[in-house]
Amino acid sequence: MNDAIAILTGGGPAPGMNTVVGSVAKVFLRNGYRVIGLHGGYSSIFQKSPRTTDIDFLFADDIFNRGGSAITMSRYKPTSEDFEQRFNLDFFKKNNIKLLVTVGGDDTASTANRVAKFLADKKYPIANIHVPKTIDNDLPLPNGTPTFGYESARSEGANIATVVYEDARTSANWFIVAAMGRSAGHLAFGIGAACHYPMIVIPEMFNKTTITCDKIVNLVISSILKRKVMGEEYGAAVISEGVFHELSEEEINKSGVNFSYDDHGHPELGKVSKAHIFCEMIENKISALKLKVKIRPVEIGYEVRCDVPIAYDRQYCSLLGFGVYDLFKAGHTGCMVYVNNFGDVAPLFLRDLQDPKTGKIPPRIVDIDGQFVQSIIKYVLHFVTPDDYEAAKKYVPNPAEYDFLKILNWD
User: Fold this and answer.
1) Of 23, 96, 191, 258, which is the most exposed, with the fewest CB atoms less than 10 Å away?
2) β-strands 4-9, 97-104 pairing
3) Which part of the chain has CATH 3.40.50.450?
4) Across residues 137-148, what is the average pLDDT?
């Protein structure tokens, strides 16, 4: 029986999933391995009859350029009881599996280590290599290397946001765009910067003050007021959903959101329309101020996760897939595959990324003081400053309340 590898995909989709799976399959197939795709993430190996697909060259070649994941995904997180009572060890033995390839975020990687340790304890050691993905771009890869899927999601998000901005200009409205990003504002800032949105709100901006619903609202109104002073009645603001992670319980209750939580304990932000919530809060303040402004909500999230990967991610994901084979043949295990900007492949071990105290991988946040971010804030965003106070009094009695720098305590 030929040696085999198994591939599973966990978490939520990102552009390039199929490119990674297809690339891994192609390189292992040409070197004589059988390639088995596991459907349903980790749930598949805790079932008596897991749903699998034998991946051949035609299958791999067919999915290579497509969005989504042909190997169905899941956020399933196995419990200790699952390992003790339901782990399908026979599946690994009968199929002569030598390597488990996992594609996902940090939760998927952590579970891969648990599986590998369990198999080693059962005297059936196999290698496990993880391919990190997230459109949030918040895994701390070295040298600012993006996580795969981010650039494609940003590109499609910018396409949507551009059309939204054109609608704002055409109809003399304001749009409030909420963008995905659980722990960091990379996607929201990347989209807003690419489209020259007059206001961007991400959690990293509140580095010198406590984040509240009122401050989020006032930042957007600051932009609305500045545009009115400029003689423009239209505009758009993009807000990262990650601001909800920084709000206190009292502030979340004030927003009216009731979150459910996934198997990993993360609030399921995708179940509620953040744009609608932001829109309502801003509308309430606008109504109280008697400002004549029409605003509409737009959500950017699920619309970009299964998009066809752009050329950057196709090339990047191909190198990641090939890198899995290189690391496996070099004897590496319990690591993530890392490819730098020059195409060099190296193992990246979770222990090198984890916080030594908590054991968790800290998210990579937006460098709010970096030149790129500061240039966008300085030259693209529109907001009230002391120079606008006199003109802004036509619309609000206390313009200083909407001074961008004062709101963020940056002055």
Assistant:
1) 258
2) parallel
3) 4-148+309-353
4) 90
Q: Classify residue 254 by burial, with Cβ atoms within 10 Å: 0-12, 13-18, 19+.
A: middle
Domain with CATH 3.40.50.460 in the chain: 154-305+381-407
Is the CA virtual torsion 231, 236, 240, 244 positive or negative? Answer: positive
User: For the chain, what is the HEC assignment?
Assistant: CCCEEEEEEECCCCCCHHHHHHHHHHHHHCCCCEEEEECCHHHHHHCCCCCEEECCHHHHHHHCCCCCCCCCCECCCCCHHHHHHCCCHHHHHHCCEEEEEEEECHHHHHHHHHHHHHHHHCCCCCEEEEEEECCCCCCCCHHHCCCECHHHHHHHHHHHHHHHHHHHHHHCCEEEEEECCCCCCHHHHHHHHHHCCCEEECHHHHCCCCCCHHHHHHHHHHHHHHHHHHCCCCEEEEEECCHHHHCCHHHHHHHCCCCCECCCCCECHHHCCHHHHHHHHHHHHHHHHCCCCCEEEEEECHHHHCCCCCHHHHHHHHHHHHHHHHHHHCCCCCEEEEECCCCCEEEEEHHHHCCCCCCCCCCCCCCCCCHHHHHHHHHCCCCECHHHHHHHCCCCCCHHHHEHHHHCCCC
Active site residue: 106, 136, 138, 403, which one? 136
**Catalytic annotation on 355?**
no
Please, what is the average pLDDT of the chain? Answer: 91
**Separation CA 404–CA 131 (nearest Å):** 40
CATH topology of domain 4-148+309-353: Rossmann fold (3.40.50)
Alpha-carbon span 180 to 302, nearest angstrom: 8
Q: For 32-42, what is the mean pLDDT?
A: 96
Q: Using CB atoms within 10 A of its CB, is residue 1 exposed (0-12), middle (13-18) or buried (19+)?
A: exposed
Q: Is the pLDDT of residue 197 over 60?
A: yes
pLDDT of amino acid 263: 59
pLDDT of amino acid 236: 98
Residue pLDDT, tens place only, 332-356: 988 899 999 899 999 998 777 777 7
Contacting residues for 374 by C-beta, under 8 A, at least 6 apart: none
